[in-house]
Amino acid sequence: MAAPLFLPLLAIAFAGAFAQSSTGVGFGVVAGPFLVRAHGYERAIAETVLFSLLVALISAARQFAHRDTRATRSLLLTLPVGVLLGGIALRLVPQRLITLIFGLILSALGCLLLVRSVAGTPRAALDERCEARGAGTRRLAIGGVAAGAAALLFAAPGPAAAWGLAGKGLPADAVRGTLAAYFVAAYGLILVTLAATGAMAGLDWIFIGAAAGASGLGAVGGLITGKRFSAGLLDAAIALVVAASGLMMLSPLLREVL
After folding, report:
1. Residue 153: what pLDDT?
2. Nearest of 6, 2, 3, 33 to residue 214 by alpha carbon
3. What's the rounded Cα separation, in Å, for the pair 180 and 209?
4. Do 9 and 34 touch, CB atoms closer than 8 A?
5. How far is the CA of 196 from the CAs of 183, 200, 201, 216, in angstroms?
6. What's 198's DSSP letter?
């Protein structure tokens, strides 16, 4: 790797790991676009999966006990469905169109979540109405399927999974713990899939080792900071990450149009 890119990418890996560990989502949003630009799509996906799995393992070691068992189970049950649909989409739909669709959806969802957090809608009242109609369960299922597809296509299941969890009214620790437990399974499954298809060949293992160290430090720092997040602050942080994820996906297409 060219020396000028090495240290900046380590800093970006640290920042992505910090974001994911403190809010529950964020590595693919922060680091993914830079890795794609530096190394290309296929290699960047493999690197993002490796680093995200490392961050998830570190986070789960601290937050696993706080997970919501029912929400974790729902996300895990829908994961294979999403991965299967993502694989079908990858074969039948142009990658640019997939990126456009996911970018638009995530941008809209992030804005809606941000409006809700800023408006200060009482969580208990809103979640009671959602659960009474079964909306929270349906929303989590939709988010889980979308997260599985995004895990395969972009190595970024977090925004969709976080959107699904946002309707459950979980405490901040439970959100982070649920996402960490889910990410261990999701990224583990994608890693096995990539290894079986030969996508892990040709990686720069010197860079992988250095970036893994930076990611580990970022994850530990994020765990320390994330403990101070209230439920409302976590809602706002996740909303910003989800919206940023969508805009990151759309930015290359917007540059071409403009």
Report:
1. 83
2. 6
3. 22
4. yes
5. 19, 9, 10, 26
6. T
SS3 sequence, 38-91?
HHCHHHHHHHHHHHHHHHHHHHHHHHHHHCCHHHHHHHHHHHHHHHHHHHHHHH
Distance CA(159)–CA(112), nearest Å, equals 13
Tally of helices (H runs) and strands (E runs) in the chain: 11, 0
Measured CA to CA, the distance from residue 10 to residue 19 in angstroms comes to 14
Ranges of the chain with pLDDT below 70: 1-4, 116-135, 229-232, 234-235, 253, 256-258
Residue 203, by phi and psi: left (phi above 0), alpha (psi -120 to 50) or beta?
beta
Full-model pTM: 0.77
Beta strands (DSSP E) in 108-148 are none
Angle at 208 between CA 224 and CA 243, to 5 degrees: 55
pLDDT computed for residue 38 by the predictor: 83
pLDDT of residue 74: 92
Query: 């964020």: which residue's tokens?
Result: 26
pLDDT of residue 59: 85
Distance CA(104)–CA(127), nearest Å, equals 25
| Cα–Cα distance measured from residue 234 to residue 24, given in angstroms and rounded to the nearest whole number | 9
Burial class (CB in 10 A: 0-12, 13-18, 19+), 112: middle
SS3 206: helix
